[in-house]
Write a structure and sequence with these properties.
This protein is of the alpha/beta class and about 350 residues long. About 40% of the residues lie in helices and about 15% in strands. The protein is elongated and about 80 Å long.
């Protein structure tokens, strides 16, 4: 799809609060110019077209300085899955790299109050498997399940995309901003329908959730209270015709009330293993090249590798076995994990990669 409008004029039209994304798409598609599109509404142009275009040019310049590109609904690079939903954004402000259309994408969402004993390890286990199948992980960069999904994807060497409710340069808190930078550096992207400099506002978050669903082939809700943003994403997934899954949780946990309700109502399929989703999507496991021969950089690293040849162990037991303290052992384990030869499991248990 193509448009004869200059990009700055599309940005200018989208900046007018009188128009929603659907209005922008309709006007750009059916009129020859910004002036023609606004002719029936002269009151919108009190400052004149030149001023409006000047603001748009400034916005594009700011985006460029922040490493953010603008992709319009008419551009070939606009994600086809997102274009197909009932209310797609007219503009995407993208910091980083969007994945090819053929890449299978799984949206992972849940409560900000993710439980350390259930939601976090479940999310990590599922994401590990999906990344191993070559799937991109889509989420919203919020605290809780979103952050766990993004972080675990990066740790596993996968690609993750975050849809945000602010400009790509106005991400907060600092921990989320740092995570966003790492996502981009690892080959993923931060996506927004809001220009650089725009702070997040409450109404923007539900709109952000439709982008998570729109970019995904399937959406998985890990933990959610009876009401919450994850359930809004789930409703968008149903509306968009996306496969919707939910992880069942303890009936005593308020943070699983929403997921259990989705399953009970028949709105979402139950997820017990990552294969429940990949089998539905027809995704096969990647054939990975074996790790190159690893050389320990210290006697302690070699001792840890030797100890873990016997199977998974808790960090306390590893420290005793190699004759050092837990803090030093964790440092060595982290280095080995980064090298890809050791993996971590729930409860600070570690094993040789590929051994479990």
């Amino acid at each position: 799809m193509h448009s004869t409008w200059p990009l700055s004029d599309i940005v200018a039209l989208a900046s007018l609060r009188a128009f929603e994304a659907a209005d922008v798409i309709r006007l750009v598609s059916t009129t020859a110019s910004l002036a023609e599109a606004l002719q029936p509404q002269p009151g919108l142009l009190d400052d004149g077209l030149d001023v409006l275009r000047g603001h748009a040019a400034a916005a594009l310049d700011k985006a460029d300085r922040n490493g953010t590109q603008v992709i319009t609904w008419w551009h070939d690079a606009y994600p086809q899955r997102l274009r197909s939903i009932d209310a797609p954004p007219a503009l995407l402000w993208v910091r980083g790299t969007l994945q090819p259309t053929e890449t299978t994408a799984i949206g992972v969402v849940g409560t900000r109050a993710c439980t350390a004993q259930y939601g976090k390890p479940v999310t990590e286990r599922l994401v590990d498997e999906w990344v191993d199948h070559g799937c991109a992980i889509i989420s919203g960069l919020a605290a809780g399940v979103d952050t766990v999904a993004h972080e675990r994807t990066l740790r596993q060497g996968g690609i993750t995309i975050a849809a945000v409710a602010s400009g790509t340069d106005r991400i907060s808190p600092r921990s989320a901003s740092d995570l966003a930078t790492r996502i981009v550096d690892a080959g993923g992207a931060i996506v927004s329908e809001y220009r650089c400099g725009q702070a997040a506002l409450p109404p923007f978050f539900p709109q952000r959730n439709r982008i998570i669903s729109g970019l995904s082939h399937a959406v998985v809700v890990v933990e959610s209270a009876a009401r919450g943003g994850a359930l809004i994403t789930a409703e968008f997934a149903r509306r968009h015709g996306r496969a919707l899954f939910a992880v069942p949780g303890p009936i005593t946990s308020s943070r699983s009330a929403g997921t259990n309700a989705l399953i009970a109502a028949g709105h979402a399929a139950m997820v017990c293993t990552a294969t429940d989703v990949t089998a539905h999507l027809g995704v096969g496991r990647l054939v990975r090249e074996p790790l190159a021969t690893f050389s320990a950089s210290s006697p302690q690293q070699q001792a840890i590798m030797d100890v873990l040849d016997g199977g998974a162990m808790h960090v306390d037991a590893i420290a005793v076995a190699i004759g050092t303290n837990v803090g030093t052992t964790l440092v060595h384990l982290l280095e080995l994990e980064i090298a890809g030869v050791v993996c971590q499991f729930e409860g600070l248990r570690f094993a040789r990669s590929g051994s479990v």
